[in-house]
Amino acid sequence: MDEHxxxxxxxxxxxxxxxxxxxxxxxxxxxxxxxxxxxxxVHNISMQKTLVEGERLIEDKWSYRFRMPERGDIVVIHxxxxxxxxxxxxxxxxxxxxxxxxxxxxxxxxxxxxxxxVGSTLPGVTRFPYTVGSGQLFVLGDNRExxxxxRALGPIAISSIEGKAVYRxxxxxxxxxx
Length: 178
What we know:
- This protein is α+β, with helices and mostly antiparallel strands.
- It folds into two domains: 1-35; 37-177, Umud Fragment, subunit A (Ribbon), CATH 2.10.109.
- It has helices spanning 2-35, 150-153, and strands at residues 37-41, 56-60, 74-77, 86-92, 97-101, 104-107, 110-111, 130-131, 136-140, 156-157, 161-170, 176-177.
- It catalyses: Cleavage of hydrophobic, N-terminal signal or leader sequences from secreted and periplasmic proteins.
């Protein structure tokens, strides 16, 4: 009878160890997803031709804790500026002066080469020339004529940047670094 109790104790102890290991793995995975890397999905056409609706991305949430976003970065925005999570490209940094002329964007008086952009860049409701304020970014969608971005929403607070889109993981035939 003592052997039977010992066997039950052993099974119980092993079950508790397994449950603790599984709980720890789940906690680590959740922390990793919330603070380091996460998956994001493209939900509209504002970034076409670069990204299309339905594509899945890996978002780096860690890097911007140590450095500022850079011009050209594709960022995931989640803040008070929009009720939706947005994927846009950083065009202007704090202190930059942006202007829109003849369907193109000008940065600090110089035209910006944007081989990724589709369509004409129109001013929207933003008055140009526009100076990006401290703690803010100016973002645009690559599909300029079909994007709700800083031209309509205004500048985006740097604190609203959730992370940088770094990889496309779906569809598999487009898998790779952005």
